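Running this now, will post back.
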Amino acid sequence: MTTHIIISIDYELFGNGTGDVMKTMIQPTDEILKILEKHGAKLTIFAEMLEYWAMQDAIKDGTLPTEKYDPCQAIEKQLKNSIAKGHDVQFHMHPQWIDSKYQNGKWKLNNQYWKTPSVPGGLGSIDDSKSLIGLFHRGKTELEALCRPMNEDYRCIGYRAGAHCIQPHKTVFQAMEQTGFLADSTVFPGGQENKGYTVYDFQDVKDHNPYRPSLDNISKHDSSGKILELPLYAENILLSKLLGYRNKNLPVQTVSTSSAPPQTQQNKKKFSLYRNKRWDYDQLNSKGMSEMLDRALKTRKGKTNILVMTGHAKTFNNSQGLNDFLKYASGIAESQPDIKFSTMQTAVEDYLKTEKRQK
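Update: finished.
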């Protein structure tokens, strides 16, 4: 029984286009990489490629200044260096960047495309750059062209939907299958949001164990499914306990850092003594991260297990907490060789080999 711990990061500007690439992506990711490498851990970077392409276009047409630095070159350098050091890069996108423009020092985004299935080209084809197939094909092709010279075994096989907005997921999974993707890591057990542009419902996902979703319901298991789902680890935690888990350095959200301007707020959640909490190194202190790991390890089953941790470069302000957690987790891994810090690619490939042997 092998347990893979995947520490992942969403690598992007804020959802409304604000933020400086150096301050919200490059510098915090460098800090996270430094901490992980100290403890022998690996980082899986979910690189937001649509905003990267938007920056490329804006640089070409002269609207995005590069006097201080070229943001695209900075991103490319960091991703290549990460691969060279044994980390991972997988595909991430926020479709509101489709047809975006940089005007008067600000990005103008298209929030009608906020959810992954809402791209204007629908399922489409490789030749349609605004379709799901076209976007997944381009993302995979360009990431492999960028990263494979640094590691000939690198493959872009995984996806995470922006703001978890992957439903209805049928066309998304069809596009992933047709373009050679193997796994998704968007859902988390108990997750639900219906606020503004962000809508998702994973309440029927009961645990964090990998599974193959049905094309009709992402929460329903289907052994014939083509895409493997790696849920983010999450728990329902008592509010009284959660207060002791909070990262006290977490930045206060402001208008400039919000995901998107709200349209309406629907289905307000009923008060509960519990809150659904993801295993998030931005949100949690070392105690919270460590105790969630302890509970996660107790739920392991007799096969390849995958535990996915998440975080964001743009809000990272928890160096000491992450360092202390990794010191604790690396101690567990040293005493139990079946527990490993892994990349998404490594974990998925191992899971698929085990799955094949068991058939």
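The longest strand covers residues 3-11. More later if anyone needs it.
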